[in-house]
Design a protein that fits this description.
Blueprint: H1 5-33, H2 36-65, H3 72-77, H4 84-100, H5 102-109, H6 118-143, H7 150-172, H8 174-199, H9 206-225, H10 230-248, H11 253-258
Helix pairs in contact: 1-2, 2-4, 4-6, 4-9, 4-10, 5-6, 6-8, 7-8, 9-10
Length: about 280
């Protein structure tokens, strides 16, 4: 799937255009003929178009978070030095969207044998957000040319994952496995924060980061604990999107300037062609 992801995204966009064109044509036919079957076909076409658009947006969010530069849009508008505030805010919103809409997404993409999988979607989504933050923090040790201790951080995360698997999976099954994965990624994030900041300090906006992540987690728990229907859940996701965009777009100019300062080992740019480390 990883090797065919760009082809999948292109096919998805073509599917959106085909489905939208079909819906438009069928809607015109339904309006002129007044047939109930044609109107129902137009309604199903509209549902399919919306589902494909949502899937395309989620794929784009995944490509941004995972730095998949094979997509031209991602390569043009981002790099591996994306501000941590922007990245984690966007990743937290994507996790909120996946967690809040998990029951319906699982029903759309899987058969009835896998409906229980929706219980682990939110946890794994936030786990991936933590891993996305880890990839940004790891750039600091690369800029400082002090990556010898990175394996200790990843080794501790792997040990936490394996240990929690033995403890949680027998009790909670797949939910326990998702919790252990999330815990391991949080340990990776925390460990790399401590190490990278010690060798290449960057004034990250920790208060804003914490607010964005905790708000996303709280809203996801609220949506699933109260069993919100589809429409309120979708409205919650759309309402928080504008808030996340406002929060992510307001990186401090002084913090952006800190990326331009030469750090240890400034003679070698290890971030991939002058990529910034702004926050």
């Amino acid at each position: 799937m990883a090797n065919t992801f760009p082809l999948f995204c292109t096919t998805l966009l073509l599917g959106v255009m085909v489905c939208a064109s079909y819906t438009f044509a069928v809607s015109l036919a339904a309006g002129s003929t007044g047939r109930a079957r044609t109107l129902q076909a137009a309604r199903f076409g509209a549902y399919g178009t919306v589902a494909l658009i949502v899937t395309a947006v989620l794929c784009l969010a995944y490509a941004f978070v995972s730095h998949d530069f094979r997509l031209r849009y991602v390569a043009h508008y981002s790099d591996r030095g994306m501000p941590l505030t922007y990245l984690l805010t966007a990743a937290s919103w994507a996790a909120l969207a996946l967690g809040a809409l998990a029951p319906w997404l699982v029903r759309l993409l899987a058969n009835h044998s896998y409906l229980r999988a929706e219980k682990g979607v939110a946890v794994l989504s936030f786990a991936f957000a933590a891993y996305a933050g880890y990839t940004v923090l790891a750039i600091g040790s690369g800029r400082a040319r002090k990556t010898r201790l990175n394996w200790i951080v990843t080794g501790i995360g792997a040990a936490v994952n394996v240990g929690l698997n033995f403890w949680l999976i027998p009790r909670y099954g797949m939910v326990g496995a998702s919790i252990s994965t999330a815990a391991a990624y949080v340990v990776l994030f925390a460990g790399m924060t401590l190490y990278a900041q010690s060798v290449y300090p960057v004034p990250y906006q920790w208060r804003r980061l914490g607010t964005a992540v905790l708000a996303a987690v709280g809203l996801t728990v609220l949506a699933r604990a109260t069993h919100l229907p589809l429409v309120p859940s979708f409205a919650l996701v759309l309402a928080t999107r504008s808030c996340s965009c406002c929060s992510a777009s307001s990186c401090r100019p002084s913090a952006r300037a800190c990326a331009a300062r030469p750090g240890p080992g400034a003679g070698l740019d290890t971030t991939g062609g002058g990529e910034r480390l702004c926050e």
